[in-house]
Specification:
elongated, binds phosphoenolpyruvate, binds manganese (II) ion, Chorismate Mutase Domain, subunit A, eight-stranded parallel beta barrel, TIM Barrel, 8 strands
């Protein structure tokens, strides 16, 4: 476990004297909610930008879709009262124009918007010539090209300060995370665009406030350039993302643990939980993949049966195992391990095909191998 000092050094290595902190509620709900949160956050002396969504992209119609332009005025009031810079999401040209008109300091482009290059380009054209900071969230899909492409559109439009935000990726089945982190993807983005700071948004990765501290810690350990964390005075009553927002007090405790003097005693346990949660997701993927592979084996059995083909096709087996072993080698896995694993998979696949009624010839003394 790195010390606080080591973490700060790692932030410095990335060209920043300390990690950028962005905090505030998921949505602006009322002037009072906004001001109360902002004043509490300003007192921590650690927050660089106060965030609040004014237009909310919701999955289903009928959910709270944000207060709209009126709340930009509340953000201006916050800025005046606390001195904090303010940030909101721009999902289209109209939002971008309104935000500029209200002197919003930073705009983030949401995960759903980033997936649409037409809209991203229009927003970039609208922001041309302004000195607003733009933070580009990763798209819902795990597509680094699309993420990098959106960032480049803003850079090409002359925006000087463009950052990336890692908020996790949509995932087709349930996991402990709302959006799976796939940490290698923001790392790949860093490799491709080394000058673009990458901020982590643990709130949207987690979907659950209990996971926010360990994800934040993980992000700092990995050398992210900052954090964006959702904070609400009464998270359980929040009109959006109620499960993932922290109270100002727990946000303060978290920043003390990460950057201050509180010793990070449960850090290691948290990290273990976080890594195990990721392993659980990968195991889920393995089971999903095997289930689908066996289903396909059943369908193939039907075709072979109809065409009077033998279940065991040595040529095909050779091709599959050669490809698997060479892929294993490329990714640093032991070829022997993959050969053994595939041998078992093929064995199972063969019995699935036999059960499906395909005519098989048992070759005595030879373990039947791959059959698909
Ligand atoms: C948000 O930050 O509140 C938000 C809607 O983010 P995302 O686009 O990551 O879902
Ligand atoms: Mn949110």
């Amino acid at each position: 476990m790195k010390t606080t000092q080591a973490r700060q050094q790692s932030a410095q290595k990335n060209g920043h004297s300390r990690p950028v902190l962005i905090a505030g509620p998921c949505s602006a709900e009322s002037p009072r909610q906004l001001m109360e949160t902002a004043k509490a956050l300003a007192l921590t002396n650690r927050v660089d930008y106060f965030r609040a969504g004014v237009w909310k992209p919701r999955t289903s119609p009928g959910s709270f879709e944000g207060v709209g332009t009126e709340a930009l005025k509340w953000l201006q009031d916050v800025k005046e009262a606390t001195g904090l810079k303010v940030a909101t999401e721009a999902g289209n040209v109209q939002h971008a124009r309104e935000a500029l008109r209200h002197n919003i300091d930073m705009l983030w482009i949401g995960a759903r918007t980033v997936s649409n290059p037409f809209v991203v380009q229009e927003i970039a054209d609208t922001l041309k010539g302004s000195d607003v900071v733009v933070m580009v969230k990763n798209p819902m899909a795990p597509d680094v090209d699309l993420w990098a492409g959106s960032i480049k559109r803003f850079q090409k439009a002359g925006i000087k300060n463009v950052c990336a935000i890692h908020r996790g990726f949509s995932y087709w089945t349930r996991s402990v995370f709302r959006n799976h982190p796939w940490w290698h993807l923001p790392m790949e983005l860093k490799k491709r665009l080394p000058d673009v700071p990458v901020i982590c948004d643990p709130s949207h990765i987690a979907g659950d406030r209990k996971l926010v501290p360990m994800l934040s810690q993980r992000a700092m350990e990995m050398g992210f350039n900052g954090l964006m964390i959702e904070v609400h005075p009464k998270p359980e009553n929040a009109l959006s993302d109620a499960n993932q927002q922290l109270t100002p007090a727990s946000f303060l405790k978290l920043t003390e643990q990460l950057f201050g003097n509180i010793r990070d005693i449960d850090g290691q346990y948290n990290m273990l939980d976080e890594l195990r949660a990721e392993v659980d997701v990968i195991d889920q993927v393995l089971i999903w993949a095997l289930t689908n592979r066996m289903k396909l084996a059943g369908e193939i059995a039907g075709i072979k049966n109809k065409n009077n083909m033998e279940t065991l096709q040595p040529q095909r087996w050779k091709q599959v195992i050669t490809t698997a072993v060479s892929r294993a080698r490329e990714s640093g896995l032991r070829p022997g391990f993959i050969e053994k694993l595939f041998d078992d998979i093929h064995h199972e696949s063969l019995s699935v095909q036999r059960n499906d009624g395909a005519e098989t010839k048992q070759i005595s003394g030879i373990r039947p191998t791959f059959a698909i």
